[in-house]
Design a protein that fits this description.
Elements: E1 4-8, H1 15-29, H2 35-49, E2 54-60, E3 63-71, E4 74-80, H3 89-101, E5 105-109, H4 113-121, E6 124-130, E7 141-146, E8 154-158, E9 162-167, H5 175-178, E10 189-195, H6 211-225, E11 231-236, H7 238-249, E12 254-260, H8 283-288, H9 291-300, H10 306-315, H11 317-322, H12 325-333, E13 352-357, H13 366-372, E14 378-383, H14 390-393, H15 395-409
Parallel strand pairs: 4-5, 9-10, 9-11, 11-12, 12-13, 13-14
Antiparallel strand pairs: 1-2, 2-3, 3-4, 5-7, 6-7, 8-10
Helix pairs in contact: 1-2
């Protein structure tokens, strides 16, 4: 195949051919567009739209096959002749617009999912939505922006078999759930323990670092590490919310969810919480610890003991010390998902395990019971003498419940 040339448009003399390309592409992809609206836009292209953008064309053997238009940092238009689609022409035009024209944002018709998928494959992410197009016509727009460079995740992979992804909570790292690795070691499971962006050894996100961006990053990580293979997910606290979001995006791929003290509602004021309770306080133990470590331990420990402290020291404390506090502040500033995953998880029938601690003053245990009712194959357990670190407070019981959940995955 001859060389594809990307160059500036020569001017109005090439506009008629660009209109032909536009009409060919629109007829092939914009089936939602009413004929009258299509004809109106076509009539305005050369006179009104083309003069407002910098036009770049794709040419092969002297024949124009596609074009792109940019204004400031926005890609305003990109169309490829219908007969030439699938040959990398759109990718070449987009790459040129990004590298040479500084394009960082684009609007896509929501009713054109192929275009949305294309831009997502090139690193764009949905940042908003409008109910109508710029002219007020009833064609919803998705507002996409080029994502910042994604930090490479720190991963620990153990074993072989069906992947199980472990997603930790806010302020800690992969070591919190690495404590449970032995519960999976005897089965056909590849355990993938990760540090979320901004925690442990994974750098923070470069953008605003809110919960939607963290969810996008996690989804990209799954695409890179698991691909299209079936996998199960274990999530704790914030990780329990991210696990549900991931499942809502990949319902046919996720074999089941185990949620340990999961966040149900990101807004703390909306949660049903028990009063902060310490069932057993070990003064001798607390006095033997460094003041900062004792404070962190007291924030979560329900039944204080040397054994419980040792589990906290090895599983939770390292992540607490390694967390990027600035990244946590950015996450807190946009700690929401809209829509919530539950709105997209109706009908999810795979095995679900939800374990809560009755003394969990962070996320509670009542909301988790309500959440469990949504899933036809869910088991909900609220463990006494357990707080937010439920698997550290009741390690044997949680391992037993995880074993039952794993058996359900293969039943």
């Amino acid at each position: 195949m001859s060389t594809l040339i990307i160059r500036d448009c020569l001017g109005p003399e090439e506009h008629p051919r660009l209109v032909e390309i536009w009409r060919s592409a629109v007829d092939a992809t914009h089936h939602f567009l009413a004929a009258a609206d299509r004809d109106e836009i076509e009539q305005q292209l050369a006179a009104a739209y083309f003069p407002q953008v910098r036009l770049t064309v794709a040419e092969r053997e002297g024949h124009l096959l596609g074009f792109a238009g940019t204004a400031e940092d926005r890609l305003e238009m990109l169309f490829v002749e219908a007969s030439a689609q699938g040959q990398g022409i759109g990718t070449a035009l987009l790459g040129h617009a990004i590298r040479h024209d500084g394009a960082r944002a684009v609007d896509v018709n929501e009713q054109n999912p192929e275009a949305t998928a294309f831009y997502k494959s090139q690193g764009f992410r949905v940042r908003g939505r409008s109910e109508t197009d710029d002219a007020g016509r009833p064609y919803p727009l998705l507002h996409l922006a080029l994502a910042a460079a994604r930090p490479r995740p720190h991963l620990i992979r153990r074993g072989s078999g069906t992947p199980v992804l472990f997603i930790h909570g806010n302020g800690v790292d992969h070591r919190l759930l690495l404590d449970l690795d032995d519960a999976f070691a005897d089965g056909p499971w590849e355990r993938i323990h990760l540090d979320l962006a901004g925690f442990g050894q994974t750098p923070a996100l470069d953008d605003d670092g809110g919960l939607p961006q963290l969810a996008d990053w996690l989804d990209d990580l799954v695409a890179e590490t698991v691909g299209e293979a079936p996998f199960a997910v274990v999530g704790n606290s914030l990780g329990g919310l991210l696990a549900r979001e991931l499942t809502a995006r990949r319902p046919s791929q996720v074999l089941g969810m185990a949620l340990l003290a999961p966040v149900v509602d990101p807004v703390q004021e909306h949660r049903t919480l028990p009063k902060r309770t310490v069932l057993h306080r070990d003064e001798a133990l607390l006095n033997s610890l460094r003041p900062g470590e004792a404070l962190k331990y007291q924030e979560m420990a329900v039944v204080q003991s040397p054994e419980n402290w040792e589990r906290f020291r090895s599983a939770a404390l390292p992540g607490l010390k390694a967390a990027d506090t600035q990244a946590m502040d950015r996450l807190a500033a946009r700690y929401l998902l809209d829509p919530m995953p539950e709105e997209r998880l109706r009908g999810y029938t795979r095995p679900v395990l939800i374990v809560a601690g009755r003394q969990d003053h962070v996320v509670g245990f009542h909301d988790q019971e309500v959440l469990a009712r949504q899933f036809p194959d869910a088991r909900y357990v609220a463990l006494d003498r357990a707080g937010h670190n439920v698997h550290l407070d009741q390690p044997l019981e949680v391992r037993m419940l995880l074993g039952e959940w794993l058996a359900r995955l293969h039943s």
